[in-house]
Amino acid sequence: MENVSQTQQCPYVAKCGACHIGEKSYEEELAEKREYVVRHIGKYCSQIHDVAGMYYPYHYRNKVHAVFGKIKDEVVAGTYAEGTHTIIPVSGCFIEDTQASAIIQTVTQLIKSFKLWVYNEDTGRGLMRHILVRKGASTKQIMVVLVTASAEFPHKNHFVAELRRRHSEITTIVQNINDKQTTMVLGDREKTLFGPGFIEDVLMGLRFRISPSSFYQVNTAQTQVLYKKAIQAAALTGKEHVIDAYCGIGTIGMCMSAKAGRVTGIELNQQAVKDAKANAKRNNIKNMRFIAADATEYMTQMSQNGERADVIVMDPPRSGSTEAFVRAAASLKPSRIVYVSCEPETLGRDLAWFRREGYHAREAWPVDMFAFTECVETIVLLSHKSPDSVINVTVEFGEGEGKVPLDAIAERAKKYLPKPKITYKMIQEYIEKKYGFKVHTAYIAEVKRSLGLTMYDAPNAVEELKHPRKRPPKEKVEAITEALKYFEVI
């Protein structure tokens, strides 16, 4: 890895919140990321390697998004200030692809010159909402997605022609229609304005089709590092049945297919499955099939049908997996599970669930996919711990010498009955009755998080994670802690 101690200075640091360039050296970032991983999964996995850093940790994002807005009647494109919907105009971001950044600036100028209305979140009026630029690192193909609030696009043909004239490197332009008042970037409808409506990229020697909404890792160079380590952890011999859960457009599963007997990719997103099938066909992969289904439900059905899997590879979203998924995965009795996570906190929670199912984390490899941000990707290898030996014990029930009384067993069993589930509502009601004030579920979740407890049962807790965390006031921390003790949660 190149010595990048002299970090470039970003003019937007501490404003946009997207990264932390300029605050510390890259080496310090990597060290802190390893500490972050250890803090959340160290109690479940003792062998955690150093973070695999980038050779050049700048301009690595092959997917760049900007929101349009107006500041003093001037059309701008940028990102939201951290924790707000205040737009920070950004030009020449140090972590975004340079061509993508230039295209966004051009589109911003064209919006002004073509006198197109910029969408206003407060009033719900206007046309131009967002722009998304995706680039194939190997193919150099570029997709521009213009997100509009309606299907009507005045001067559309002239707009596209002028954009292509200024940027001949663009290979496709898509209009995405998002007419809902939502924080989601993309809508459900699309119109291809130029080109095929998708781009392609080459990864691990395979060619992949990428649509506007397809999931594809934003850091191509580090994705190769990530996938090579995942394949190594899977330890395939050519005979295994591999399940690629949350498979997206099928990248991990297809990269493993050459070393596996067969691969089943499971993905809920219909468009992603369509792309995955096209990807398998264009790469002439015949030992992989794709299922458009909920992975938890499908694997549960597989288990009920008596089917098994040798290896499961999973790459869930930032919110992690679910207890139901973990049970479904364990029911297929795989010898190895390769977990690819982008959030150590939810990873730690999920490893605890896997441990209850008999699967233990053996080794972890953090990979820096998002330089100068708080995010870090981690691969964890889990395997089932089989008993070293078996002891057969014969117990005779009844009355008399050497026998175990049934009444005594029943009495003893009462001690092991599961405790009733303590809900957030119960904690809120207890605090309001005893202390006379209310507490938000996010505050309860924050206190539970600080105590190392699971906090995702809160109805709003996952949603709250999308916003900056706010430490509860001292008196509420004390009240919540006392309530947790009262209910014997701690």
What's a concise summary of this model?
This protein has 14 helices and 16 strands. The protein has 490 residues and is of the alpha/beta class. The model is unreliable at 1-6 and 455-468 (pLDDT under 50).
Give the strand order of the largest sheet, numbering strands 1, 2, ... along the chain: 3-2-1-4-5-6-7
Pick out the low-confidence regions: 1-6, 455-468
- CA radius of gyration: 26 Å
Largest sheet: 7 strands, mixed
Content of β-strand: 15-25%
Q: Can you write the helix and strand succession as a string?
A: HEEEHEEHEEEEHEHEHEHEHEHEEHHHHH
Figure out the total of helices: 14
Describe the structure.
- With 490 residues, this protein is α/β, with parallel strands linked by helices.
- The protein is built from 14 helices and 16 strands.
- It has a seven-stranded mixed sheet. Strands 12-11-10-13-14-16-15 form a seven-stranded mixed sheet, with helices on both faces.
- The chain is globular and about 95 Å long.
- Residues 1-6 and 455-468 have low confidence and may be disordered.
List keywords for this structure.
490 residues, alpha/beta, seven-stranded mixed sheet, 14 helices, 16 strands, 21% strand
Mind sketching the topology for me?
Elements: H1 26-41, E1 63-71, E2 74-80, E3 87-89, H2 98-113, E4 128-135, E5 142-148, H3 156-166, E6 170-177, E7 189-194, E8 199-203, E9 206-210, H4 220-234, E10 241-245, H5 251-257, E11 262-267, H6 270-282, E12 288-292, H7 295-304, E13 311-314, H8 323-331, E14 336-341, H9 344-356, E15 359-367, E16 377-384, H10 406-414, H11 424-435, H12 441-450, H13 461-464, H14 474-486
Parallel strand pairs: 5-6, 10-11, 10-13, 11-12, 13-14
Antiparallel strand pairs: 1-2, 1-4, 2-3, 4-5, 6-7, 8-9, 14-16, 15-16
Helix pairs in contact: 1-9, 2-3, 7-8, 11-14, 12-14
